Amino acid sequence: MPSNEYIINACQELVRLKYVRSLAAIAKECGKTAQYFTDLKNGKALYSRKFLDDLIDKYPVNKDYVLTGEGPMLNTEPKTFMRPLPGRA
């Protein structure tokens, strides 16, 4: 499994584009604590395959980007249920 850099970048992009309010909200949605991204950023933890699978299932994150750093961070055609938060686009 590669470093945490690409998964953090993709999740920050989700927040920037207002698909979700915060990294803590992503962590909670994927069964982790609010501390999870801090641990990833500080190198205290490595993301798991299960976290990646949960993330991709819930958000339009490009798996190839997370694994290789190549391609767009987010899928160009997100799942129909994924839209930016109301009033935040």
Short description, anyone?
By secondary structure, the protein is an all-alpha fold. The chain has 5 helices and no strands.
Question: SSE layout and pairings?
Answer:
Elements: H1 5-16, H2 23-29, H3 36-41, H4 49-58, H5 63-68
Gap between N and C termini: 33 Å
SSE string, helices as H and strands as E: HHHHH
Structural class based on helices, strands and sheet pairing: mainly alpha
Shape label: globular
Oligomer: single chain
Largest sheet: none
How many strands appear in the DSSP assignment?
A: 0
Low-confidence stretches: none
Beta-strand percent range: under 5%
The Cα radius of gyration reads 12 Å
Task: Provide the residue-averaged pLDDT.
Answer: 88
Q: How many alpha or pi helices?
A: 5
Q: Into which percent range does the helicity of residues fall?
A: 40-55%
Description:
The chain has 89 residues and is mainly α. The protein has 5 helices and no strands. The relative contact order is 0.22.
